[in-house]
Design brief:
It holds the Pfam family DnaJ. By secondary structure, the chain is of the alpha/beta class. It has helices at 5-22, 29-33, 42-58, 64-80, 83-106, 111-118, 162-167, 253-258, 318-327, and strands at residues 121-123, 130-132, 141-143, 148-150, 154-160, 169-180, 188-199, 208-211, 221-222, 226-232, 239-241, 244-252, 260-265, 271-276, 285-288, 304-311. Strand 13 and strand 14 form a beta hairpin. The relative contact order is 0.09.
């Protein structure tokens, strides 16, 4: 059988695509930072990280290159020690991990959770989802003024990343509900509609976005409400405490005694540096003004509160002990 040139072209194209998918080079940079291979176990990751901690703690270098590499090692450990993040990294590399974090930070949908609320379903992925109501009218409340019953109100958790809460964002949520075909009619039809949630910069955690009478319509019934409760997604570096941001960081003994400089990505999207030129005691807390969350309705911001922990060497050599004694002028 003779194959046309067009068909040959598509066969070659498909073959190249399959070859690229099957033989793409995996991203192993994070494993390289810890001196490991992608086949390593969780305990090997833990052991390698602890050994590198000791190595960098004993190092005398205080150069920016040293600081950057140590930061990268901590990042590698943070990803690879997390089972879910590691599986995404193994499959898609850092670009895939960053994309997944971005998608999951907007809205984390849970089909079982939504099914429990209204016996319907919830579809969609990424930055939007679709709510489908089914005209359920049980557990209704009576409005004494007009003797109409109010339908069910639904409440959903809305997971949003720290970065999106800091900057503010808009979410459009399409959904389908039952509506009366016309006023005075008892016939119901399905209608596609949409809700828009505006998250202002610095919106508090657990804030509720209430859409009154946005749920299913029904005969002789007041539609229930739809409520979204903001739940700030967990951030690997920063935690929120009101208008302040809280962070814990580790210093080498050298940094704790002589000063340090730390750079990290702020929820604003900018790289931010915190420094100290004075000795830092273990457990010491420092406040950096204006590096916290936006305070709603004002131009002010909360503070960044950092707790410092110091990595002490497990032991010193006699030479190191003598050097330390000389520094402090002690016999």
């Amino acid at each position: 059988m003779k194959i046309s040139s067009t068909l040959q072209f598509f066969i070659v194209l498909i073959s190249l695509t399959l070859f690229q998918e099957c033989y793409s080079v995996p991203d192993v940079q994070l494993y390289d930072l810890l001196g490991l291979t992608p086949h390593c176990t969780a305990s090997e990751i833990e052991t390698a990280y602890k050994m590198l901690q000791k190595e960098y703690d004993r190092s005398k270098s205080n150069k920016q290159e040293y600081q950057n590499r140590y930061h990268n090692i901590r990042t590698a450990y943070s990803v690879l020690s997390n089972k879910n993040q590691r599986s995404i990294y193994d499959a898609k590399g850092m670009p895939g991990l960053q994309t997944t974090k971005r998608e999951n930070s907007i809205i984390k949908s849970n089909n079982n959770m939504f099914g429990n609320f209204f016996g319907g379903n919830m579809e969609g992925e990424g930055n939007s989802f679709t709510i489908s109501f089914g005209g359920n009218s049980r557990n209704v409340r009576t409005n004494r003024r007009n003797n109409k019953k109010k339908g069910i109100s639904y409440k959903f958790a809305l997971d949003v990343s720290l970065e999106d809460v800091y900057k503010g964002c808009k979410l459009k949520i399409p959904y389908t509900k039952n509506v009366l075909k016309r006023r005075g009619s008892s016939d119901l039809i399905r209608k596609n509609t949409e809700l828009e949630i505006v998250i202002k910069p610095g919106t508090p955690d657990k804030h509720e976005f209430k859409f009154e009478k946005a749920a299913d319509e029904g005969v002789n019934m007041i539609p229930g409400d739809i409520i979204f409760v903001l739940h700030q997604a967990e951030d690997p570096l920063l935690q929120r405490n009101g208008n302040n941001l809280v962070m814990e960081t580790e210093l080498t003994l050298l940094e704790a005694l002589t000063g340090f400089e730390r750079e990290f990505k702020h929820p604003s999207g900018e790289m931010t540096t915190i420094t100290s030129t004075t000795p830092i005691k273990p457990g010491m807390v420092k406040r950096y003004r204006g590096l916290g969350m936006p305070i709603g309705g004002t131009k002010r911001k909360g503070d960044l509160i950092v707790t410092f922990q110091t990595q002490f060497p497990e032991a010193f050599t006699d030479k190191e002990k003598n050097t330390i004694k000389q520094i402090f002028d002690q016999e």
